Amino acid sequence: MRPIAALFTFTVRQMLFSRKLWMTLLLLAAPSALIVTIRSVAPPVEDAGELWDRYHGSVQFLLVMVIIPLVCMVYGVGLIGSEVEGHTLAHLITRRMRRATVLLVKFAATALVLVVLSELALAALYACALAGYDVSSLTGAAPAHAHWSPGRDLLGYMATIPAGVVGFLAVFTLIGLLTAQPLALSVFYLIAMEVVMGNVPTGAQAYTLLHAQRVAMVYAIPELSDLFHHAEISAGLHDRLFPEGATGLPQLLGVVLAALVLSIVLVTVRELMPTKVARE
Amino acid sequence: MSIIELNALSKWYGEVIGLNNVTTRVGHGITGLVGPNGAGKSTLMGLAMGQLRPSKGAITVFGDRVWDNPHVLTRIGYCPEGDAFWPNVTGRQFVTFLGRASGMHGAALKTAVHEVIESTGMTPHADRAIRGYSKGMRQRIKLAQTLVHRPQLLILDEPFTGADPVARHHLADLFRELAERGVDILLSSHVLHEVEALTRQILMIDHGRIVAEGDLQTVRRELHDRPHAIRVRLDQPRRLGRRLVDLEEVMSLRIAAADTLIIETASPDRVHHQLSGIILEEGIAVREIAAADESLEAVFGYLTNRSA
User: Of B220, B250, B265, which residue sits at a domain end?
Assistant: First the structure.
């Protein structure tokens, strides 16, 4: 267990002392910064519905849909790729750990750091969007508002965001191992498969990771269902996409397991060595 | 007993051949893996470290497969040729982490880290970030991580690269000392005299094939199609030459310098025997008689058709 613990702590340490961390923090802080900017230039919100839309809209359409997948892409693609490029993988795979163990330990350490950072970003966004407002004293007519409990919503998000982080990290780790130029494939996947397909009003969005995460969030915060029930989606399709009692977790877990199993296979059978080194 | 065994081992990179049907064994002690750039040295080392998979054939280390086999790999210390460092770590953190990753811990790890840093001469620099190291320092800290888990076999890819003459001397002494303690070493270099100074046991590789292996002197003697050169240093090379020219065994004579005569022969033992008699008869003062082309460089040149 000691080599595993050593690699785990070393990976966490490397993440916390890397330049990439600053870029990650900037990305994760962007929704909070946007909300602060809006609050500083716009008059205070008096309608609960507007505040609800602003808070949940920025969580869903900035943090969950764009920024967290983007951060997971940066770290997932480089999980093994950066070790290959830095020639440091040779040190790791020639120690007392199997290749699959190296992958899983690095994955777990990276996922832990990203989950903590995402939760912090979520808490910061909550504070920036809702600090200074007494929700119960606001006017408003939207269905959710009578019982809106921002604290409960925050807990709902905090409970479900780790699943999305782990899911996206697993997918991008797999992409990072599939090809020598994973960035193009990752960007294509993120835009075409998640952002576009995950938002078009058809049944196809049910096959995206983003949707599985939304189902989990709707399970934790039922009022969120309204956010995704826009005009283009029929009631029947909406009910199919967000079935009663669905948690989204089996889908998320399935994606994570499939991506990790495939990644383990790739890391176990592939040489993962820069070709120019192998050829001297 | 052999440490590394290669059986009909081939490695291709697409259409490029890295190693071509190599069968050989690496035994105890220090073995020098020599060859020009692109000959296949790093490929062979990559295969021995389980970083590369054979395209054909098999390789075993300590009698076991090496690919993804931590039991074998933890008995090996590997020093890659190029830089292989994580950013933002000091030399000590680098060596300590890789010691831990090899299963070491506690006081044993601390002692081992201290010893290897000391033995590689990195103590004054160990707590500085590696990114500020000179090339020679980076090479030495790489060697320290190679040794930290006390491996039985060292695989060192160009270990002298970047080291200054003093550090090279120091490292060569360290390798000799390790070999005396029973650590087996396979080291590659294209600087032939460095290898020659460490060992007479060589594995010569060119274009992915082993062109010679074994004791350097034996390899040279087996090159029957190449005349042996004997260098004689004396004051009167012409006088000695006049006596030698009639000998049947002497193929050619060359005065290489005012005090140097080079004798080429296919039968060096017989020439040596006769040479002693002539020198005594003539009463010529001779300062040196030595083989002129039994150096690794000369043998390598013969075998790879490069000028010696």
Answer: B220
- B200 and B234 housed in the same domain: no
Q: Which residue has the higher pLDDT, A100 or A142?
A: A100
| A254, A166 Cβ separation under 8 angstroms | no
Which chain B residues touch A2 with a CB distance below 8 Å?
Answer: 100, 103-105
- Tens digits of residue pLDDT in B280-292: 888 888 888 877 7
Rounded Cα distance, B230 and A194, in Å: 77
CB of A211 closer than 8 Å to CB of A167: no
Q: How many CB atoms lie within 10 A of CB B247?
A: 17
**A271 and B51: CB-CB below 8 Å?**
yes
Q: pLDDT class for A230, splitting at 50, 70, 90?
A: low
- Average per-residue pLDDT for chain A: 88
pLDDT in tens, A266-277: 999 988 876 444
Instruction: Residue B274: name the closest of B254, B306, B245 by CA.
Output: B245
Q: How many domains does chain A have?
A: 1
* Structural domain contains residue A280: no
Domain-located, residue A141: no
- A20/A83 Cα distance (integer angstroms): 15
Residue B304 falls within a domain, yes or no?
no
A87: left (phi over 0), alpha (psi -120 to 50) or beta: left
Structural domain containing residue B75: 2-220
Q: Which domain holds residue A198?
A: 2-132+146-272
Sign of CA dihedral B90, B93, B96, B98: negative
| Complex ipTM | 0.85
Q: CB–CB of B53 and A271 under 8 A?
A: yes
* Rounded Cα distance, B296 and B194, in Å: 10
Q: Give the C-alpha separation, B53 to B59, whole Å.
A: 9
Residue B306 lies in a domain: no
Residue B276 sits in the same domain as residue B238: yes
Q: Name the pTM for this structure.
A: 0.84
Rg (CA), chain A: 21
Same domain, B182 and B125: yes
Between B290 and A259, whose confidence is greater? A259
How many domains are contained in chain B?
2
Q: Is residue B307 domain-resident? A: no
Residue ranges of chain B whose CB lies within 8 Å of a chain A CB: 13, 16, 18, 37-43, 46, 49-53, 68, 70, 73-74, 76, 78, 80-88, 97-98, 100-105, 145
Together in a domain, B133 and B265 = no
Does the CB of A267 have a partner CB in chain B at under 8 Å?
A: no
Q: Which residues in chain A are contacts of B80 at CB distance < 8 A?
A: 87, 90, 277
Going by their DSSP bridges, the two strands B201-206 and B56-61 should be labelled as: unpaired
Q: Tell me what the mean pLDDT of segment B239-258 comes to.
A: 84
**B43 to A87: CB separation less than 8 angstroms, yes or no:** no
Whether residue A217 is contained in a domain is answered as: yes
